[in-house]
Write a structure and sequence with these properties.
This protein is of the alpha+beta class. It is 30% helix and 39% strand. A hairpin with a 2-residue loop joins strand 2 and strand 3. The longest helix has 18 residues.
Length: 142
């Protein structure tokens, strides 16, 4: 498994394919909600297995100090292997190296313990997107 972080067009395109499969096809979230215009200004993690794109996440910051991690997704057939954990840890390390002091995430409620296990703290309930309840969590970068 290889993991790359960057924002080259190829990384973004391959990340989009994962996000479409997971969010739109599996979870029924409209594709237009995924495309918010922030991709080209974000850092993207892309995990690959040979030529197969298997997982992604996005890190975005408007002020260069506080980041938002979003679009964390793993292809169905690759789940349960710890890939999401590796991707999130890589993004935390990238945020730290980039001078960020905090990372905010709006995660599916059922993923709360997963993110708590990585050091994120629950902040509050955030709302819902197409029936998926979201929570806000925050990580303080050391």
């Amino acid at each position: 498994m290889d993991l790359t972080i960057g924002n080259a067009p190829d990384i973004i395109s391959r990340s989009h394919s994962i996000r479409y499969a997971v969010f739109t096809e599996e979870q029924g979230i409209p594709a237009e909600l995924d495309h918010d215009g922030k991709d080209e200004f974000s850092s993207h993690a892309l995990a690959t297995d040979g030529d197969i794109a298997v997982a992604t996440a996005r890190l975005y910051s408007e002020d260069g100090v506080h980041a938002v991690m979003a679009r964390v997704a793993v292809m169905k057939e690759y789940r349960g292997r710890g890939i999401a954990r590796d991707v999130v840890r890589a993004m935390i390390e990238h945020a730290q190296a980039s001078g960020m002091v905090s990372i905010e995430i709006h995660a599916h409620e059922y993923l709360r313990s997963f993110y708590e296990g990585l050091g994120f703290l629950y902040v509050n309930d955030y709302g819902a997107v197409v029936g998926h309840k979201l929570i806000e969590m925050r990580y303080k970068v050391l």
